Amino acid sequence: EVNLVESGGGSVQAGGSLRLSCEASGYRFADYHMGWFRRAPGKERERVATIEDIGETTYATSVEGRFTISRDNDKNTLYLQMNSLTPEDTAIYYCAADPSLYRVKRGGAAYWGPGTQVTVSS
User: Fold this and answer.
1) CA 47, 74, 20 angle in degrees (round to 5)?
2) With contact defined as beta carbons under 8 Å apart, do 118 and 18 qualify?
3) What phi and psi values does residue 31 have, to the nearest 5 degrees?
């Protein structure tokens, strides 16, 4: 059974940093493309960043230069380092996994974690 669990969320002041983790189990982690998504109150879910099985990354314009997605295949863990946080980054953050990069990028990944709350105060 595939299982994704996010951690590392919390409350931080604007300008601060957080590092999210997503521990995966139940599948061959290195073979799957991964992504971070977020849903802010009253807004649609937004793709934040993706990372391919080979390590290629993409970022939403709103986070480029501030967030870094990475993966540790030995630890079956996906990360999102978030710096220079602003109140607009407040959202529930989800990790997602799929063998298809297309499905990950389109938000249609087969597997999702339950999410972790990030709150940034001004």
Assistant:
1) 35
2) yes
3) -90, -5
Query: SS3 for 4?
Result: strand
* 110: its two tokens: 């087969």
pLDDT in the model for residue 105: 96
Output the CA torsion 41→111→65→15 (10° steps).
40
Task: Give the 3-state secondary structure of residue 70.
Answer: strand
Contact 31, 99 (CB under 8 A): yes
Helices (H) and strands (E) in the chain, counts: 1, 11
Nearest-5° angle of CA 15, CA 49, CA 93? 65
Instruction: Write out pLDDT tens, residues 57-82.
Output: 999 999 999 999 999 999 999 999 99
Q: Tell me the per-residue pLDDT of 26-63, one tens digit each, with 9 for 90 and over.
A: 999 999 999 999 999 999 999 999 999 999 999 999 99
**Nearest of 75, 80, 74 to residue 95 by alpha carbon:** 80
